[in-house]
Amino acid sequence: MAENEDQRGAQAQRARAEQARIRPSAFARQLAGAGHRDERAGGTQAVATRTAIMVYGCERDEADAFRRLAPGFGVAMDMTSEPLCEENAHLVAGRRCVSVGHKTPVSNGALRRLSRLGVAYLSTRSTGHNHIDAEFARSVGITVAGVAYSPDSVADYTLMLMLMALRNARSIVTRAEQHDFRLHPVRGRELRDATVGVIGTGRIGAAVIDRLQGFGCRVLAYDRNPKTSAQYVGLEELLRSSDIVTLHTPLTAETTHLVDRERIGLMRRDALIVNTGRGRLIDTPALLSALERGELGGAALDVVEGEDGIFYADRRSAPLENELVVRLQRLPNVLITPHTAYYTDRALRDTVENTIRNCLEFEGRQHG
User: Fold this and answer.
1) How many domains does the chain have?
2) Which of 39, 142, 149, 177 would bridge 350 by S-S if both were Cys, CB 3.0 to 4.6 A apart?
3) Tens-place pLDDT, residues 139-182
4) Are 161 and 287 found together in one domain?
């Protein structure tokens, strides 16, 4: 019995040491300790409040990060690997703040049920929230917001895709794996000799521009609200003038199929298109048609229209139902990766930490 008590005492001591090692931010300490005032017997008594967050679609690396960071903010976390749906909405159990992943759409039915259960804030662990009907959420009293994470993760990956496309890397690697070590029949191009058009110059687009300027190439930009020192031009001029076009604009009703058949027709025959934004920014049938007919130089796509149910799954033993993706993959001048540009250690830390911060700040505004 004494040995068990000693073990429990040692465990408690280690837990206190871990809590002391991770210091909460001043804002988190203030929020955790502020509470509300309870009027009793002619005086006031402080009643501590503690923000609790329910995390859906939580993967193992995210769960580890939430467990590591949450104590430092004084928040309680509950997590499930299941994506949010109507059937498991009851897991919120009175919590006002919910976090969801970006891999699975959130139905309006699930939003309605969350609202009835008292949820007021839904944080998606992504910059965009096109997988959630934010307007419907607002109508049932739920605020939807994305999180900011390292723009360098996507910017670095975008530059990698550009360089791979310019140097025919997919074909070269495939041939080498088959022990064909001859030079590629088509010479590569150098990035400094290219004109690159950047569509969308928010945090990620601006980070891409910074990197491109380091390569010494000419950069053109298009954005309704110019934010960088790049040379801004109209969209049609950008498409006509660019050797590479890269997409970094949010997906909205207005930007869906922003690059459609007509706009693809404006591009140079040897131009490359890179997409690390959202798949539906490009009219995929129009892109495929241009590539198959030799009217476009190539594409490097980390996102594709209709990727749901394909990306993030092992499909080696099952045929792909998306014929457009299958046909794109057959083309030697097309490189497809599974929506992984954001996937870095730093971006994961940023996403988890900012999810917690955003929920705390929302609760702070509600109780302020």
Assistant:
1) 2
2) 149
3) 999 999 999 999 999 999 999 999 999 999 999 999 999 999 99
4) yes
Catalytic-labelled residue, pool 113, 125, 278, 280: 278
Residue in this structure with the two tokens 């006002």, named with its chain if needed: 96
Catalytic entry in 96, 263, 305, 307: 307
Asked if residue 172 and residue 269 are part of one domain, the reply reads yes
Asked if residue 278 and residue 133 are part of one domain, the reply reads: no
Dihedral, 242, 246, 249, 255 alpha carbons, nearest 10: 70
Q: What are phi and psi of 37, to 5 degrees?
A: -100, 130
Q: 327, 292 in Cβ contact below 8 A?
A: yes
Residues 183 and 281 in one domain: yes
Residue 87 annotated in active site: no
Does residue 171 share a domain with residue 102? no
Output the pTM of the full model.
0.83
Q: Are 60 and 179 in a shared domain?
A: no
The whole domain housing 122 covers 14-149+346-367
The reply to whether 80 and 110 lie within a common domain is yes
Write out pLDDT tens, residues 75-125.
Answer: 999 999 999 999 999 999 889 999 999 988 999 999 999 999 999 999 999
Establish whether 278 is a catalytic residue. Answer: yes
342 φ/ψ angles, rounded to the nearest 5 degrees: -80, -10
Query: What H or E segment, with its residue span, contains residue 348?
Result: helix 345-367
Token readout for 42 is 């002619």
Distance, in Å, from the CA atom of 164 to the CA atom of 188, rounded to the nearest integer, reads 9
Among candidate residues 339, 353, 357, 363, the one labeled active-site is: 339
129 is catalytic: no
**Helical pair 203-215 and 151-166, crossing angle rounded to 10 deg:** 50
